Amino acid sequence: MPTPTAARMISVADAARPSPLRRYGAWAAAAVALALLPHVLRAPAAVPVMNQMGIAVVFALSYNMLLGQGGMLSFGHAVYFGVGGFLAAHALNLAAQQGLWLPVPLVPIAGGLGGLLFAAIVGSFSTNRAGTVFAMISLGIAEMMAASALIFDRFFGGEEGITTNRAKAASLGGLHFTTDRDVYYLIAVWVLISAAAMYVFSLTPAGRMANAVRDNPERTEFVGYSQRWVRYVSFCASGLFAGVAGGLFAVNYEILTAENMGLNASGSVLLMTYIGGIGTFAGPILGAIVFTFLQSMLSDYTSVWLLYLGLVFLAAVLFVPVGLAGVLAMHGPAWRNQRFGRLAGPYLAAAVVTLVTLVGVIGCLEMVYFFVSAPAGQVTKQLFWLTVNVYTATPWAAFLALIVLGGLGMRWAGPRAAAAFADASLPRAAR
Amino acid sequence: MSELVVFSVLNGLVYGMLLFMLASGLTLIFGMMGVLNFAHAAFYMLGAYFAYTISLYTGFWPGLVVAPLAVGLLGAATERYGLRRVHGFGHVAELIFTFGVAIVIGEVVQLVWGRPAKSYEGPAALDFALFHLFRSSFPAYKAFMLGISVAIFLFLLAILTRTRAGLIIQASLTHPGMVGMLGHNVPRVFMVVFGIGSALAGLAGVIAGPVLGTFPGMAQVLGSIVFVVVVIGGLGSLTGAFVASLLIGIVQTFAVALNVSVGDVAGAAGIRVASLPALHDLWRITVAQVAPILPYLLLVLVLIVRPTGLFGTRET
After folding, report:
1. Alpha-carbon Rg of chain B, whole angstroms?
2. Tens-digit pLDDT profile for residues A138-167
3. Which of chain A's ends, N or C, has fewer CB atoms near its CB within 10 Å?
């Protein structure tokens, strides 16, 4: 399976990026931002959500080592997350009960080793081929593990899962992890370490050859590399970091269930990585943050949030196949040309009509949901800033009109925004 | 024992032919476009729900025709306005698109019909036991299911091998470029095949809904199994899909019917193992418990040994 050409072009542009100083600057800025964030965001829900984001970032980055960098589409990546997480939870329990010396900050290592070990076993036969064969083996393994989790209940804890308690483990240098904020710093450090390690991996010969095998496996064989071995190395490294993410999950939530390694979990990581963009290193980070944010915010406001996520995902595949990070990267030339200001007008128009359409779509979907599932006798619903009676025609007509108006507006504003973008991206000399 | 064998074979045939109805569409779509359609099982679920809604007003029979048609149109529209657009971005994007369609259909079904299972029932005219054998009886509705799926199989075979349209479809499977050169509208052939495949999935949903249950998770129950069938049989091969459907159908029904544990089997073979606590879980697993794993185990083994599947000729 070839990867999209646009994504490939961006990764080439990435490789040619000069100035190492700039690169370290980005990492330093990330570290400072991670340290300051809990002091800036003071909402009570912020820290738990950021913990979730951190875990998702590591997981999505490890997934992109397969999909984006290695061209291997996996439908069972949560298996390595889950195996690592369960091992980490068991290790924490051993530390608490049997006196195993394993301080909490090192628990993700146990998870990583679990993920690495399992990936080494599965990869030994699944990485023989790429493409559909690899994808189907990953699906088969995922289904097998999901079913086994209910059979081997000594390790996986059956339906209830495995619970653990991080407070009972040994401490390292007097560090204790009691509150969410304590765990936040632990996760932040591990996110930085893992992201840096994965970035460095992508620069090593092993990482570069993974790109080559993705693009032209036959030719890499002629150059003298075994495509199986290159894929195997990427796969094991990816399993390692998925396991680290699983270990962080075990520390943060202190519980793991079979759901954490089910097909839905594997699907989520595919969604977030793809929405963020598989062609750039930063893509999965952005995707994980946006996805987790949507997940936790939307589920507070509406019960059909999964439908919205699915629609966002479909729209992303249809209209922005390069992902969010890809779109941002595409605007590099316009920024360097200092013609960003000219984009503001057309983009604002496009944003307004998109918003109008969205309001219409959300209104209709929410009314359908209310119509179907509201208790008998209840006829009015709080929607945006209005109270509507779903048994009258007016709100339906109004929201449908918004969809039609917005759709027409998009047909008008879309091409204009695209033209403005093309114009702004042209170098001065070409104009 | 003979009772168990006879009824397991019969039930395995019914289940296997149902799988084939799904697998045939999936394998044709794959053979033609190189896309594993994740939304296929979602169309199967839509078929069941459409037929349920129709059966509320008119009884079972009209749904048998109308629901698959509606699902087929929806499938054709998905190809025309979604998949065709994504086609330019490569196979991964196409696959991921169908994955998204599956999620959206699953959520829309929950939105419109709600989470609890629906009491979608088969026709009253078929609500009797066809025959009694030993101490069990075989319901007429299952015979009807078997009849429909065999008829569809023969119909499909006749169209693909005996008609001009079938020839064009077969040629587009292997030589889409040449078919296009000869003046046929290959994208339209794709759309029609996608529509027919979806309609077949919808029909499978219509007849399976009353037996296997009509609930939002029904797509997930069969979705992965159908993939297993298509991959084991060999991607793009109808014969392979047929053999693998029956194989998986019969293996699964037999495994569910057998209530023997690993320990029993080992014991019968003369192996005794001191009851280690770590091996305890492994030792008391019954064949029935392993049943859901078996198809996937088979899938992984087949892919390791023969990546083209049993009857396939290509890998991707």
Report:
1. 21
2. 999 998 898 888 777 778 887 788 888 887
3. C
Range of the domain at A131: 5-321
Same domain, A216 and A120: yes
Q: Is the pLDDT confidence value at A5 over 70?
A: no
Structure tokens at A4: 């999209």
Residue A349, pLDDT above cutoff 80? yes
Q: Is A9 a residue whose pLDDT tops 50?
A: no
Q: Tell me which of A298, A321, A344 is where a domain ends.
A: A321
Reported as half-sphere exposure (CB side, CA atoms, 13 A), residue B275 has a value of 4
What is the structure's pLDDT at A232? 94
Partners of residue B107 in chain A, C-beta under 8 Å: 304, 306-307, 310
Provide the residue ranges of all domains of chain B, joining segments of one domain with +.
2-216
Both A315 and A338 in a single domain?
no
The answer to whether residue A14 scores a pLDDT higher than 60 is no
Distance (Å) from the alpha carbon of A257 to chain B's nearest alpha carbon: 18
Q: Output the CA torsion B111→B115→B117→B121 (10° steps).
A: -10
Report the residue of chain B nearest A370, measured CA to CA.
B111
Residue A328 lies in a domain: no
Taking only the tens place, the pLDDT of each residue in A217-240 is 889 999 889 999 999 999 999 999
Is any Cβ of chain A less than 8 angstroms from the Cβ of B276? Answer: no
- In-domain check, residue A118: yes
For chain B, helix, strand, coil in percent to 5 are 75, 5, 20
CA atoms within 13 A on the CB side of B4: 8
- Distance separating alpha carbons of residues B46 and B38, to the nearest angstrom: 14
Q: Are A231 and A343 within one domain?
A: no
Q: Does the distance separating the beta carbons of A132 and B235 come in below 8 Å?
A: yes
Task: Inform me whether the C-beta atom of residue A132 falls under 8 Å from chain B C-beta atoms.
Answer: yes
pLDDT band at A248 (very low <50, low <70, confident <90, very high): very high
The proportion of chain A whose per-residue pLDDT surpasses 70, expressed as a percent, equals 93
Same domain, A81 and A171: yes
Q: What global pTM score does this model have? A: 0.86
What confidence score (pLDDT) does residue A6 get?
47
Task: Select from A74, A75, A127, A136 the residue whose CB has the most chain B CBs within 10 Å, as the one to mutate to test that interface.
Answer: A136
In the block, residue with structure tokens 């950021």: A50
Cα distances (Å, whole numbers) of residue B217 to A97, A112, A120, B118, B309: 40, 33, 33, 12, 28
pLDDT above 50 for A2: no
Q: Is residue A26 part of a domain?
A: yes
- Give a yes or no: residue A180 inside a domain: yes
A210: its two tokens: 């993974």
Comparing A11-20, A200-209, A273-282, A390-399, the range with the smallest average pLDDT is A11-20
Instruction: Identify the residue among A10, A133, A366 best suited for mutation to test binding to B, counting B beta carbons within 10 A and taking the highest.
Output: A133
Domain co-membership, A242 together with A383: no
- Based on the fold, state whether residues A345 and A316 are members of the same structural domain: no
